[in-house]
Amino acid sequence: MRFRLTPRETSFYDMFAASADNIVTGSKLLMELLGADSSARAEIAERMRAAEHAGDDATHAIFHQLNSSFITPFDREDIYNLASSLDDIMDFMEEAVDLVVLYQVEELPKGVEQQIEVLARAAELTAEAMPNLRTMDNLTEYWIEVNRLENQADQIHRKLLAHLFNGKYDAMDVLKLKQIVDVLEEAADAFEHVANTVETIAVKES
Prior knowledge:
By secondary structure, this protein is mainly α.
């Protein structure tokens, strides 16, 4: 493994960790949404919006550091891809919460809680993995497990779609609910993109 020690580059690790910790906050808000009645959802959406803005700030800080650093801990393209994928996760989670509020969804279909549980677990794993970028240690199990979770999310998503199209829902409700579960699936995909980027970085640095 190559070691490149410079004073400036350590800030990238802290910023990636902060971005991932913020995603954990977002996943907890998604979990909170599940148990909330319609009157409480708007306030949860406001907190999710604030978390998404914090995520944007973290991403912009990484890009600024990337543009102003002569030496980086690993490839610039990988830093950009990792930061962008982390940002995508927050964007999708915030969009899902916002759609629930905007569409005034009274009850989410059975199975959405499984989607959100997968996202919450992926968020925890991602937050645990980011500090390990400093040494590239103990990362293999992380990307294997996140890929497994994404496969699980795919199965949950397909079952949800089958449930939505079973004829028990009004056509307009199907459109609304499908958009929500599709966005949650995109969040799961974004977690896999993060894990794949981490794997790419680890392979290059080995």
